[in-house]
Amino acid sequence: MRKLYLKQQNSSSKQTATTVRDVDGKAQYLVTGQFGRANAFVHIYNDLGELVVEMEQTSYGLLPRFEIKTNHETVGSIGLSLGSLIDVVYVRGLSWLINGSLASGIYHAYHGQELLLTVKPTVLAQGPYNELVITHRENEAILIGITVVLNRWLFNAKSSPLKNLLRHPMTLAINEKFEVNSSNEGRHCH
After folding, report:
1. Is there a contact between 67 and 59 (Cβ–Cβ < 8 Å)?
2. CB 40 within 8 A of CB 15
3. Closest by CA position to 139, among listed 40, 7, 44
4. Long-range CB contacts (< 8 A, 24+ apart) of 31-38?
5. Structure letter (DSSP) for residue 183
């Protein structure tokens, strides 16, 4: 298990380039990407400069889907759906579940009962970062790519009603009294 730090990208820039660092500040991965148009992508390079993960956007609009590739082979895909935006995101092909609060930036990835990843926002001397605690090194690059996609989708500067709802969820309450009458007169709802 190791901790890595990914700088939060909260801008409207269509391109991303950042390093992922370990607890000692040593660069472990380089993340590059392009968002906001057809053929959007995220590339993850290891510390030797080798491309280890590619994520290519395959559907567009409000609920995008990204295909995940390692060694030019598709291993899975991640997409958001209206039914799972807040609680659970499923990574197809890898059978991973991501749950938590994506809006707060705190979430976990699991394979079955096994914890693969914990993400939480933190502030370092250089600014806001996501702290990633990853259980298995062989999953690091894919989990970094997924974190980039989820954070980019939620925190880019372009606003939409759905994203605003996720960032500032509201609770709907119904104020009704429900009384049960002990006699056979029935129930009354006020």
Report:
1. no
2. no
3. 44
4. 31/6, 31/144, 31/145, 31/148, 33/148, 33/152, 35/152, 35/156, 36/156, 36/158
5. S
* Residues in CB range of 94: below 8 A, 6 or more apart: 68, 75, 76, 111, 142
Q: What are phi and psi of 149, to 5 degrees?
A: -65, -50
pLDDT reported for residue 173: 44
List, for residues 78-107, the tens digit of each pLDDT value: 987 655 445 678 899 999 999 987 677 889
Count of residues making up the chain: 190
Residue 163 has pLDDT above 70, yes or no: no
| 65 has pLDDT over 80 | yes
14/1 Cα distance (integer angstroms): 32
Cα 132 from Cα 6, distance rounded (Å): 8
Q: Return left, alpha or beta for 184; rule: phi > 0 is left, psi -120 to 50 is alpha, else beta.
A: alpha
CA dihedral 148, 57, 95, 87 (to 10 degrees): 60
Q: What is the pTM of this model?
A: 0.78
CB 57 within 8 A of CB 40: yes
Is the pLDDT at 41 greater than 70, yes or no? yes
Domains of the chain listed by start with CATH number:
2-189 (2.40.160.200)
Tell me the CA distances in angstroms from 19 to 2, 127, 158, one per residue in order. Answer: 16, 14, 24
- Rounded to whole angstroms, the Cα distance separating 52 from 36 reads 23
